[in-house]
Amino acid sequence: MKLFKRHNNVLPGFGITLGFTIFYLSVIVLIPLSALVFRTMGLTWGEFISTVTAPRVMASYKVTFGAALIAALINAVFGVLVAWVLVRYKFPGRKIVDALVDLPFALPTAVAGITLATIYSSNGWVGRYLEPLGIKIAFTPLGITLAMTFIGLPFVVRTVQPVIEEIEVELEEAAVCLGANRWQTLTRVIFPMLFPSILTGFALSFARGVGEYGSIIFIAGNMPMVSEITPLLIITKLEQFDYRGATAIACVMLLISFLMLLVVNLLQKWSRRYAD
C-alpha cells in the first residue's frame, strides 16, 4: 500500500520540496525562536517571574494588548464595510480608494507615525479642534489605538474582499423572495459566509498591532506606566544590555500571541462548520 500518491507536478518531488520547506522554516522561524527561548533559560524561574511581572512590564502588556484588541475589533467592523463598498458599489474614484487601502503596507512605519502625531497633536490639523473638547489623541493610549487601527485595516479588507466577491447576489435575492428582511439576510445568509474571513482578518490585524513599533513610538508619548508599549520596553532593556530581561518579555509576548492565534483558529474551524 502506497503512503503517498504520485502526481504529475511542475515542482520537484515530495522529498525535495519537503526538505526545502523544513530547512527554510527552520532558518527563518524555528532557529530564531528557539534562540529566544534558550536565551531566556539562563534566568531562574524566580528571576523570570519577577522580570515579566514587574509593574512597568505589566502596564506595557495592558497598553499593547488592550490597544491591539480594540484596534482589531474596530477594523473587523469598518474593514468589512470598506470591503463591501469596494466590491458591491461602483462610484467615481473607486480604484483610487481601493489603492489607498494598501497605503499602510507600502508606507514606512516611521512616516506613518510622524504623520499621525503631526495631525493629532495639540497644534495639529485635527488635534487643535479635538483638544478643546477634552479629546486628546496624540501621546496617549488613544493615539496608540489609532496607529494600530491605521496599520491593521488592510489585513481585514484584503481578507474579506475576495469572499464578498464570491458571494452571489442571487443568494440575497432568493432570501428576499422567501420573505427575509434585510437584517435576516445579513445575519443568516451573508454573515455566516463572511465570519471565517473576518476572524482571519481580525487575527492578522491583532498580531500586526501587537508587533508594531515604528508608527507607535512617535504618537505614544512613551510614558512608563501610561503609554509605553512592550516592544519599546524590550528595546529599552536591550539598550541597557539587559538581554535576558528583554528575551523574557519577548517570550511572554510570543506565548500570548500563540494562544490568541490558537483561539482564533479554533473559532475559524467552528465557524466553517457552522457555515456549512
CATH architecture: Orthogonal Bundle
- Average pLDDT reading: 85
- The CATH superfamily appears as MetI-like
Distance between the termini: 33 Å
Secondary structure: helix percent: over 70%
Report on the biggest sheet: none
Q: What's the total count of β strands?
A: 0
Q: Assign the structural class, choosing from mainly alpha, mainly beta, alpha/beta, alpha+beta, or little secondary structure.
A: mainly alpha
CATH C-level class: Mainly Alpha
Order of helices and strands: HHHHHHHHHHHHH
CATH level-3 fold name: MetI-like fold
Low-confidence stretches: none
Number of helices: 13
- List the domain count as a whole number: 1
Q: What would you call the shape? A: globular
Percentage beta strand: under 5%
Computed over alpha carbons, the radius of gyration is: 23 Å
